[in-house]
Amino acid sequence: MTSTRDSFQRGISYLRISVTDRCNLRCIYCMPPEGVPLVTHDEILTFEEILLVVRAAVGLGINKVRITGGEPLVRAGIIDLVRMIAELPGVKDISMTTNGLLLEQYAEELVAAGLQRINISLDTLKYERFKEITRSGDLANALKGIKAAKEAGLNPVKINMVPMVGVNDDEIVDFARMTLEPGWHVRFIELMPASRKVDFVASHVLRKKIETLGPLQPYYGLAGNGAARYFTLPDARGTVGFISAVSEPFCKDCNRLRLSSTGVVYPCLFSASGVDVRTPIRSGADVEAAAHLLKAAIAAKPSGHHLDEGKRMNKNMSSIGG
């Protein structure tokens, strides 16, 4: 089926689903030390409600689904949800973004359930710094998660790194070096303005640092649905990617909608408002009615995100990478 187009003639084929607002980390650029107010269990979409929205989305030509959070692996029954989505006719690609801490436990089950690809957020290779950035995490668990994902067949495993001035920007070259051996696929993601307790590092600055290892050559063979531009270093087994939402916006090619854990469909990842689907669904709306609501969100999709104007962003932007 041909994807539904927005008012700027962009085909919408990709739905990001936040399945929880909870996370097992407290990263410094996501939330304050005390965390953020959590919504109640009744406010979160059930699996059946999520599936109804996905069915409606498939009917509009959306065939790619990414599961996010918070941290999606803390949601009880997440393996079952992956399986249910993967079994829906019309879903061609299902992926997940995670911090990786629980992957050693769940990687094989996720693959068996139908998950095809995974992105793992990792902002440092230093054990003490990992604790500082996440306020609670153990780097060893994240590294075990990366290993487990590869062994389970979740390839390519993509590592999302958010460089921050004075926090971890001294590790940019170290991460790029990981694409040589062991052959990681590393994506450098510009920090969102609303998240900034520190300054972001623009992609052109990253590239200049990375090219101290050698010239970057464009690479077009990596599977995915996101906005990353990929390159390789000489003799590298992996790739270097840049997601430059701030300095080099990719809005003209955006193919995404985002479903929040509380049932709001946002036409842009950075939208301040969206279309409520939870209330109509709980009032009896069927797949066809949900499809009309999704069409309204698609029609409201803006031409661009206006990040450079400092407008409101989502609370948790750690997993923007597609």
Topology:
Blueprint: E1 4-5, E2 11-12, E3 14-18, H1 47-59, E4 64-68, H2 78-86, E5 93-98, H3 103-113, E6 117-121, H4 127-134, H5 139-152, E7 157-161, H6 172-177, E8 185-189, H7 203-210, E9 217-219, E10 229-232, E11 239-243, E12 256-259, E13 264-266, E14 275-276, H8 278-282, H9 287-299
Parallel strand pairs: 3-4, 3-12, 4-5, 5-6, 6-7, 7-8, 8-11
Antiparallel strand pairs: 1-2, 9-10, 10-11, 12-13, 13-14
Low-confidence stretches: 309-321
Number of discrete domains = 1
Global morphology: globular
| Amino-to-carboxy terminus distance | 22 Å
> How many β strands by DSSP?
14
How helical, in percent, are the residues?
Answer: 25-40%
Label the CATH architecture: Alpha-Beta Barrel
Question: Would you give an account of this structure?
Answer:
There is one protein chain. The protein is an alpha/beta fold. It has helices at 47-59, 78-86, 103-113, 127-134, 139-152, 172-177, 203-210, 278-282, 287-299, and strands at 4-5, 11-12, 14-18, 64-68, 93-98, 117-121, 157-161, 185-189, 217-219, 229-232, 239-243, 256-259, 264-266, 275-276. The strands form 2 sheets. It has a 12-stranded mixed β-sheet with strand order 9-10-11-8-7-6-5-4-3-12-13-14. α2 runs parallel beside α3. The longest helix has 14 residues, at 139-152. Mean pLDDT is 90; it is low at 309-321.
